[in-house]
Amino acid sequence: MSTQHRVLIAIIGAGGVGKCFLGQLADLAARRPATRLSLCYLTTSKRAVYSADYSDIDIAGAVARLAASAQTPLHLPVLVDYLAAAPAKVVLVDNTSAQDVADAYPLFLSRGISIVTPNKKAFAGSYEHWQAIFTAAATSGAKVYHEASCGAGLPLISTVKDLVETGDQITRIEGIFSGTLSFLFNSFAPATPASDGRATGTWSAEVAKAKELGYTEPDPRDDLNGMDVARKLTILARLAGLPVASPTAFPVQSLIPAELETASSGDEFLAKLPQFDAQMESVKAAAARDGKVVRYVGSVDVATQALKVGLETFDRAHPFAALKGSDNIFSFYTKRYGSNPLIIQGAGAGGEVTAMGVTSDLIKVLSQIA
Amino acid sequence: MSTQHRVLIAIIGAGGVGKCFLGQLADLAARRPATRLSLCYLTTSKRAVYSADYSDIDIAGAVARLAASAQTPLHLPVLVDYLAAAPAKVVLVDNTSAQDVADAYPLFLSRGISIVTPNKKAFAGSYEHWQAIFTAAATSGAKVYHEASCGAGLPLISTVKDLVETGDQITRIEGIFSGTLSFLFNSFAPATPASDGRATGTWSAEVAKAKELGYTEPDPRDDLNGMDVARKLTILARLAGLPVASPTAFPVQSLIPAELETASSGDEFLAKLPQFDAQMESVKAAAARDGKVVRYVGSVDVATQALKVGLETFDRAHPFAALKGSDNIFSFYTKRYGSNPLIIQGAGAGGEVTAMGVTSDLIKVLSQIA
């Protein structure tokens, strides 16, 4: 335990999550004297920092050095060769949501390069790609962890793995997977009246407010189409054992009025959305007549292999109804846990908590390879 | 990856949790061809099965073989020598709640023997013993995991570790740590009236019912004194960074009326408890006047290092009020998660879910040593 192992870290992406991760990595490196965590490669889509001899890049100064760098990113196959030839074990940290990087995971893994990432694309693509990733890892012994690909730093993927690997049978998973849609419905149809007595706004007003607060994508339709939820549900369902073909292989209810699918911009969409407020108002009123509230939920029934994403109603005392802010919540029903599910809830988005998922994965990989 | 590593498993305890664990171990061994999981030692306090040459004990038939065995358990120092001399790495699984086994953890760990266990005694004893355990592990490289020492299979300890190791600051933890007391207060002071219209019973009637259903210790005072909650809170607080001296070093509210502390038996206690029903009834009524319900909670405020265990009141919409059955619930407030805590809830007791915590720990150890 006294020799210092060196592990090389290569990072793609230095945006919101990437910058938070670099802060956590600097902290981790300082607190982990038994392992020398050497940052050897850092890149955005435009610039890069690295050297032919894999010398350490100062982590604290890496972002500034990157901004001033004249180096350009290595093409992915060249990056694979560069990392595979390194003089120590390598962990690739993909802090992007880039498809091309996700596509290259089997190649990295087959060459012994471990991966930690919040990138959903790799795990919510085709089932063949999913298999290629885990087969490559199993064959080479490289590790791949992606806790933050669903629910940011919440311990969801590790929990599903623990349940499955210890021999429990997951029968059903349901959850509020989207922070944006959580915020919208918690505001639009709260389980209890606001403590300040404030009336809830119309659906379109809530969407506009969520955009203003930075809770939506630049075009809110990218949240309202439900595909982000479908991708996360695909990942959990696959971990629970179902060979889900793709996130478009099951019913996903879009909250975009058909007439606004083709609006030319997010702004045009928002301008026209008030014309359709009666639709969501009637959904809310129908639920209220039964003493319930409406929420946007993803669920998988493992026995029937049925996945679906869309609106569902819940009693006001249900944990899904009582959710606050933009929190996520996930219920895992299993044979061992019986009628009361194992529930995990909390912030499912944000730079620091997403980076935390990546950092905790890195620690798991280090415990196995360092 | 193609050679089969052998890892020896030694198990102390073959009661409720122990039997469930053996079932999960048999399953795991069958599904893990890359590692040969060899059971080499199995013991209760009376009988044992092992051989001088560490040959494999058939896992599926182990309980039956133990029941028929004429071998007696090795004294703990002898067991340490036996396991330290083994021809492969060893994991000791302590499925007891025995103090003497807990006391020997530093010795096992210092000799390179890893430990997984649900035994609270080792981690909720003196702070010196806590330090001796983790110092021994750090020095020898042996691993020690104890997820099931709090909340059974719920991912609590792993989550606290992830938060701390990734650099988050835990500011506060509060939770309903006892399945027994959860059941009692969920029945005695439900947040919403029972769906079958059933009236709640008196406090003493609820305690008697819980005992009948097998939710209490043989003497219910062992639940009502709060010490089980204090031990679990001590463990989480220490993981959050506080050097808690012992589970008796902070205020713990006992629910045993002072007059009944000295009752000679659990039965005598139950027979006399109705005389004191007015006390708990007035607590419940006071909470109800504020629109609240009463729950038995453990909490730690990290900044002020204040731990306490006892009755607190919660709004009916609070997640602690809405808990069902004998579920546990834990809220982790941290710098990153802000005002909305990370919450984990579900069954916190039971043979299979406790064994699951032990088995998932074993898998973590195997990933690092096998």
UniProtKB/TrEMBL annotation, chains A, B:
Residues the entry annotates as binding NADPH: 96, 120
Record-annotated Aspartate/homoserine dehydrogenase NAD-binding domain positions: 13-147
Catalytic residue list: 232 (proton donor)
Cofactor needs: a metal cation
Pfam families linked to this entry: Homoserine_dh, NAD_binding_3
Molecular-function GO term, any one: NADP binding
Residue ranges occupied by any Homoserine dehydrogenase catalytic domain in the UniProt entry: 155-363
An annotated GO BP: threonine biosynthetic process
E.C. designation(s): 1.1.1.3
Natural source organism: Niveomyces insectorum RCEF 264
Residues reported to bind NADP(+): 13-18
Lineage per the UniProt record: Eukaryota, Fungi, Dikarya, Ascomycota, Pezizomycotina
Reaction(s) catalysed by this chain's protein: L-homoserine + NADP(+) = L-aspartate 4-semialdehyde + NADPH + H(+)
Keyword Oxidoreductase: yes
Chain residues that bind L-homoserine: 217
Keywords: Amino-acid biosynthesis, Methionine biosynthesis, NADP, Oxidoreductase, Threonine biosynthesis
Family: Belongs to the homoserine dehydrogenase family.
Record-given protein name: Homoserine dehydrogenase
Pathway in which the depicted protein is active: Amino-acid biosynthesis; L-methionine biosynthesis via de novo pathway; L-homoserine from L-aspartate: step 3/3; Amino-acid biosynthesis; L-threonine biosynthesis; L-threonine from L-aspartate: step 3/5
SUPFAM superfamilies listed in its UniProt record: Glyceraldehyde-3-phosphate dehydrogenase-like, C-terminal domain, NAD(P)-binding Rossmann-fold domains
Primary role: Catalyzes the conversion of L-aspartate-beta-semialdehyde (L-Asa) to L-homoserine (L-Hse), the third step in the biosynthesis of amino acids that derive from aspartate (the aspartate family of amino acids), including methioinine and threonine, the latter of which is a precursor to isoleucine; production of homoserine leads to a branch-point in the pathway as it can either be O-phosphorylated for processing to threonine, or O-acylated for processing to methionine.
Keyword NADP recorded: yes
